[in-house]
Design goal:
CATH topology of the largest domain: Aldehyde Dehydrogenase, Chain A, domain 1
CATH superfamily of the largest domain: Aldehyde Dehydrogenase, Chain A, domain 1
Distance between the termini: 95 Å
Number of helices: 16
Number of strands: 20
Strand content: 15-25%
Bound molecules: nicotinamide-adenine-dinucleotide
Helix content: 40-55%
Largest sheet: 7 strands, mixed
Length: 503
Amino acid sequence: MSIFEENRAKAERYLARFRADGVLNHINGASVSAVSGETFEVISPVDGACLALAAKGDSADIDAACCAAAAAFPAWRDMAGAKRRKLLNKVADAIVERAEEIAFVEAMDTGQAIRFMAKAALRGAANFRYFGDKAPEARDGQTIYAPGQINMTSRRPIGPVGIITPWNTPFMLSTWKIAPALAAGCTVVHKPAEFSPLTAKLLVEIAEGAGLPKGVWNVVNGLGEGAGKALTEHPAIKAVALVGEGRTGAAIMRQAADTLKRVHFELGGKNPIIVFEDADIERAVDAAVFMIYSLNGERCTSSSRLLIQDSIYDEFTRRVAQKADAIRVGHPLDPQTVIGPLIHPEHEAKVLSYFEIAKQDGAVIAAGGVKVGDVGCYVRPTLFTNATNDMRIAREEIFGPVLTAIRFSDAAEALAIANDTDYGLTAYIWTQDLTRALWMTERLEAGMMWVNSENVRHLPTPFGGTKNSGIGRDGGDWSFDFYMETYNICLATGPHDIPKLGG
Ligand code: NAD
């Protein structure tokens, strides 16, 4: 048996429970069907077949989950940080133990290559370990002195929170949002994306298996306009964190307005990678290829606009095209596969539509630009050259393995092109000239920038975007700022004159 065949057999074993029982909601420690009894089909990106039926939650299920989260909140809030640290580290251990299962289920549910999903599962464990370790310090604050008074600040968890996640790398992103909320002392109602809900169910089960009290973490599946909307409107929920598209963020702002909820959005990107002629070209090519074609290009931080200085444009794009042509597209469980199928036929149709749009707008397809086979959502890694920043392929988030290469003459022009976008999530700069790199970082409209590097995350650093790419920051203490309320206590340090009213 080849490794590929072994992988497929393993995946079938791990998926069997979902095929048999469906993807149930998880409310107050119990696996339950939707109150309405309704389900929706989870479609396999590999062959379009139905992978499982998921519970189609709506406002009744959300209400039950929010009530459970509200009931569990006081005890979870009051648990000592050190105890929460221990528990969340146990969750991390349990994720590591079941990393293979998570990786296989995730690969089949999302179409992401198994080589990346094995790492994504472990990153999920790292998120729990990192935020779990910070739990004892979550309430720490400052002392602020003023004449005659000492002020002390502290933080307390805001309450039950709603967490809404997208279909791309859903396991890792769910841990990234949920681990800090739990470490802060909040209880959670999670609404996973309808295209890829499987590993959210594994995750909550793993957490409760590790000792998380029931009701602290609840999961309701369903559609955005059903379960998602109801979650954002529920009065028990004090804050909503979304990872998703900009228009979903806008809808959530409106939906959450009546109950005055705090919101946090991690949204889309049209991120530039800017390569100057003095860059280490070999490494910059590898970084450009990695940052758009890994994870199927279905990644908010992918560098989908390649800005190259005139003198190296032809050589650079030739090398990227050569590498793109050599990338293996195939079944996500094949260990050789780099690019698996896109998440869903609807998303595939969107990505494919840009091949025609690019030609109509006058760009050249230098690599890819075609669908692979008739079954499954497979697309060749694509490079558009001769592009300008006003073309739709440069302005719209395609969210696939599709790269648009644009020329620039100098730093000022590179900066103008880079900033001429509605988005502002990440930017990548390649140059040996540190002064020029710093000049760029001061002016680039992006929440995160890397110089001479691909996207390498360090969990204590802030993560988030500007403009249409988001509101708020995650990572380190920034996550706690969102999930907690800061309060101040002022102590008089001596007798002072209190204004006397009424004689
Ligand atoms: P999406 O916005 O369509 O869906 C995200 C989630 O929101 C889903 O669970 C969906 O059901 C829910 N939802 C939709 N409408 C809702 C509503 N009215 N009320 C409440 N919930 C609602 O996004 P997607 O297509 O699943 O994911 C891809 C998008 O996510 C891309 O734009 C990508 O860039 C972005 N993303 C951003 C980051 C980041 O960190 N900045 C990370 C990953 C993905």
